[in-house]
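REQUEST FORM: STRUCTURE PREDICTION
Request ID: SP-0412
Submitted by: Lab K.M.
Chain count: 1
Length (residues): 450
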Amino acid sequence: MKKGMSLLLVLALALSLLTSVAMAEEGKVLNIWCWNDEFQSRFNAYYPGVAEIAEDKTTTTLTDGTVVKWTINPNENNNYQNKLDEALLAQETAAADDKIDIFLIEADYALKYVDSPYTLDVKADIGLTDEQLAGQYKYTQDIASIDGVLKGVTWQATPGLFAYRRSIAKDVLGTDDPVAVQEALADWDKFDAVAEQAAAKGYKMLSGYDDSYRTFSNNVSAPWVDGTSVKVDANIMKWVEQTKNYTDKGYNNKSSLWSDVWAKDQGPDGKVFGFFYSTWGINFTLMGNSLADPNAAAEVGNGIFGDYAVCEGPQPYYWGGTWICAATGTDNVATIKDVMEKLTVDPAIAKQITVDTQDYTNCVAAMDELANSDFQSAFLGGQNHIALFAKAAPMIDMSNISAYDQGCNENFQAAFKDYFDGVVDIDTAKANFETAIMEKYPELTEVIWP
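STATUS: Completed
RESULT:
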């Protein structure tokens, strides 16, 4: 070892060598790590190489005999990342059939893995070309790039919209037409005015504290962290001001994302005007929460199926997304290339996923085709929501993402919930955030408030 050469660099070189050797012969086990079954379901349904799916769904056999082993560790309490990190640290010494080949990451912590030796270059190492990747939404590549090197690809794009109850909009605004509702909600002042109107009719504008958070946090003027300083953007404080106002005036139901109250507010008994949701949220979450019986068929008349519509809302934003990364040390480079090609750059497959599932896929041409067609969502009362997503997706700006996004966003929201409920004053909430964020990231030395 040369003097001054870091352990991290040595590890990176060793893993890179392992990958080069492995490329000579494909392994017969493809290990894929995820936190839920969303990618597994897409893979099993749309990857052309699938031959057989085990009854317990723990494995998928491909036509060439390769066995895909699925390792799914739920996200709660950082469980997925903790177990993934442990496995990646052991990657160099793991047996060939035990090495991670593919792992999935989310936008909020993407840079942690993108800016590491544990992910391969999608172009140089895996073999995807600029021509193949040209049809994807640029922001999806920006999230998974470091110094111009692309380290992950995704089958989905996740622009956000505002999903509202048609029946409540008719009662409050006199119309459920998406164009008219959008005009009424076109900026935050108008949005607040409708919240007051909704309250007068006995409705909540939003379910809880966190519903509008992403719309504010995606429109900040700078990244969360500059050097060793955490900089709270003025737009984040606008969310605090709005949420405190909504809580005090009864414009929200004091729920938190993913809570039982929040989910119930989306169903038949809910009295909430609408919810900020991105692509996956509408077909994957809202549809399930809106059914009277989540186990029943998703049909018109079941629960409030057909009583939702979408509009752009006050500001463009995105929320979430899942990226496919090739793990350094894999012995399945050719298979990984084929998976990435089929599931993230093939226009026909992208279009079919959207037609079947209403998910919004990462292919500009396919989505524009559907946006300009007679495509309809029965769940959204016959609306072509793809047209609105296609309009919103090019406006997504990823210039202010940072490796600290997940921790800052989660700790900031948590610190201010006591303030919204009146348990602490705003200065105490700020102090609690400062303590939490510097405990999580000891390298950060101060928090600067606007």
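NOTES: Residues 109 and 206 are 27 Å apart (CA to CA).
Reviewed by: T.R.
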